[in-house]
């Protein structure tokens, strides 16, 4: 697992093994995995803990294409299970386009109570009015304070490290296809320390013997899924 997934840390490998019914101590894994050091991302602890089940975050990030076009990726992250509930891509983001994305992310009566965003001028009054009409309370972060929107910043970092740093994006259609492939893996298979080693879609434990595990490549071989070998 370490050779196939060099970006994984030891807790993630431990969680992956637990999902296969293999109980291995973190200290044992660390004997074969280089330790990663660095400060933990700060969190807006009080507010996030109190409202995590009713809270989403939104943000943009940019991805260049092979022809040096700049594409803007908009994502909506639900905090409770770290699910990316909606994404879309555009070359020319506007407030009207962004407001429509929020509507598409929360059809019918699924709108959250709170939505965290930064003070980017792209959102504007149109986005604010749309959220008010949906019964969503905006929480706008302070200037130059990305830590106040730490969850979505973290998932954007994950998308960069685990997807876009590994591919050259050809065009908007290619970017959407890569995102869809990765999110299928991210939601169903990727373990998260903040979810006690579970995946966002509640991944079941599948019992396996230590030498009876199959490695299945996904996301065009960039990532791997581990399952018990069929009898």
The CATH architecture of the largest domain comes to 2-Layer Sandwich
Main-sheet strand order equals 3-2-1-4-5
Unreliable parts: 39-44
Task: List how many beta strands DSSP finds.
Answer: 7
CATH homologous superfamily (4th level) name of the largest domain: Ribonuclease H-like superfamily/Ribonuclease H
Helices and strands, in order, run as HHHEEEHEHEHHEE
CATH class of the largest domain: Alpha Beta
Helix tally equals 7
Overall mean pLDDT: 89
Look up the CATH topology of the largest domain.
Answer: Nucleotidyltransferase, domain 5
Helicity, as a percent range: 25-40%
Which overall shape is indicated by the principal axes computed on the Cα atoms?
globular
User: What is the straight-line distance between the termini?
Assistant: 22 Å
Q: What fraction of the residues are assigned to beta strands by DSSP?
A: 15-25%
Major sheet attributes:
5 strands, mixed
The secondary-structure class comes to alpha/beta
Rounded Rg: 19 Å
Tell me the count of domains: 2
């Amino acid at each position: 697992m370490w050779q196939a997934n060099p970006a994984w840390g030891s807790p993630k490998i431990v969680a992956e093994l637990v999902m296969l019914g293999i109980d291995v101590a973190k200290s044992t894994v660390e004997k074969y995995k280089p330790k990663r050091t660095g400060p933990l991302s700060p969190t807006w602890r009080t507010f996030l803990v109190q409202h995590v089940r009713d809270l989403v975050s939104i943000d943009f990030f940019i991805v260049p294409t092979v022809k040096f076009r700049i594409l803007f990726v908009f994502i909506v992250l639900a905090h409770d299970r770290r699910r990316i509930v909606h994404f879309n891509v555009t070359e020319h983001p506007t407030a009207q386009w962004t407001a429509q994305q929020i509507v598409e992310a929360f059809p019918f009566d699924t709108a959250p109570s709170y939505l965290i965003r930064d003070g980017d001028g792209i959102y504007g009054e149109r986005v604010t009015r749309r959220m008010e009409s949906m019964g969503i309370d905006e929480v706008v972060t302070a200037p130059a304070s990305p830590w106040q929107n730490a969850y979505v910043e973290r998932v954007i970092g994950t998308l960069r490290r685990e997807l876009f740093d590994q591919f050259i994006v050809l065009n908007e259609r290619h970017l959407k296809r890569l995102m869809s492939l990765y999110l299928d893996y991210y939601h169903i298979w990727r373990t998260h320390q903040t979810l006690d080693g579970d995946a966002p879609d509640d991944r079941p434990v599948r019992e396996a013997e230590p030498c009876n595990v199959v490695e299945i490549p996904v996301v065009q071989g960039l990532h791997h899924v581990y399952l018990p070998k069929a009898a």
